[in-house]
Sequence to fold (308 residues):
Amino acid sequence: MPAVARIDPKDVFAPEEWARFSARSSWLGLVLVAGAWGLIFAAGAMFVLWPNLLTYVLAVMLIGARQLGLAILMHDAAHGALHSNMKVNNWVGEWLCAAPVGARLASYREYHLKHHRFTEQPEDPDLALSAPFPITRASLWRKVVRDLTGQTFSKQRGAQLFGGRKPGEVVNSSTSHFLLTNAILFGGLALAGYWWAYPALWLVPMATWLPLVTRLRNIAEHAVVNTKDDPFTHARTTLANAIERLFIAPYWVHFHGEHHVFMHVPCYRLERMHRSLMDKGYWSRMRIAPGYAAVLGEASSKPVVQLA
Fold:
């Protein structure tokens, strides 16, 4: 099928507006990467200083959400939007964002740009993530249980480390870079006297909360959007509240409708661009949800079939 239609930014924004939205900063992306790692270590320190069940659960959720945050910043790097210098963009995107969570920037970029080119068409490599929806509420809960109990993680990491991908499946992960960066992280924690923090405060979030919030992200972005010819309908924007942004949707990832129309805009400019589009009346053309609860309600709205 032909690639999806594109909208010329000049048809939507004045030249000075578009220049502000599309500008790549030489420092904002680096601040976001540093902030992600800072919150990861701060959440871990919270549990070390006040060890109890509540602080551990909070730490797992915060760290897992920032692991997703690293993947989101890798996504920006895949679009060349993390830094104004492409060499810096690619190095930071690979070694500080992608590799620690088991991804690979170069292969992800190829895969992801194909997703943008053929969004919700048969050639879309992400179509399998949205095509099954809506599903029943029971099916959704089974997926949540698999995520939180580590079953999803075990299946994905097993395929990454030992093979077992389906024929033709796109490879977006790197075993060697993942093992190297994780060995450095483990070694640093061990030298500091906290070797146990690597499995308890890095692997456990990666095996539980990260798969769950990654699934929620995928559902919110494209499930049940009823894509039409208008590029403004190709993805959903979810109006996440502060709690959702902290634990589910970091770094403006919930402005996915805006990202799909103008995919090279850095993540840190999406919220301002969203407000501009709302002021211009584009809300009437977009798929906008009031929050993640509403998205999950729609995505799990398939009725249960009662057998006679």
